[in-house]
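user: can you give me the structure for this one chain? C-alpha cells are fine.
assistant: on it. calling the predictor now.
[tool input]
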Amino acid sequence: GVIRFICEILQKISREKLVRISFAIFKNIEGNHQCLELMMDNKLLKIVDTLLKGNIKEEDLVNLIKEIGEILEMNVRVLSSFDKYCREINAETLEWSAVHTERFWKENVVKFEANDYLIIRKLRILLTSKNTQNQAIACYDLGEFCRFYPRGRM
C-alpha cells in the first residue's frame, strides 16, 4: 500500500521536498518488477507527465523524475484486460474502468470458470466490503456474469 499512498499524495500535493523524497523511494525500488507494476497501476506515469509540465526549479529533481518516467515506459507490460481484472479483485480495490464493461464480460465470461470460479467467489466476498464503490462494482460485475455466462441464470 506504500506505493499507492505515495502516488495519492503526489496527486494532491506537489511540494518539491515531497516530490524529491517520493521519487528517491521510487528510484530505490525500481529493480523490483512487482513494484514497477504497482507504480504503473497507480498511474505514476501520468503523475510524472504532470510534474514535468509544472515548474520544478531544481534540475536534478527534473532529471530524477524523467529517469523514473523512462524506466516506467521501458517496463510497461501490456496485460490482458482479464489479468488486470484479476489483479483488481485480488487487491480488493475496484475502480470503474474498461474491465467493468459489457464488452469485457462478453469477451471474457468463460475465463471465470477457472479454479472452480475462484474470481467469482472473491467478487462475492467484495459485496460485504465496507467500501461502497467496491460493493457497487461487485454488484454490477456479478450481474454481468449472470447475464452473459451461458448457465449464469442457474
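assistant: here you go. Residues 72 and 154 are 44 Å apart (CA to CA). The two ends are 38 Å apart (CA to CA).
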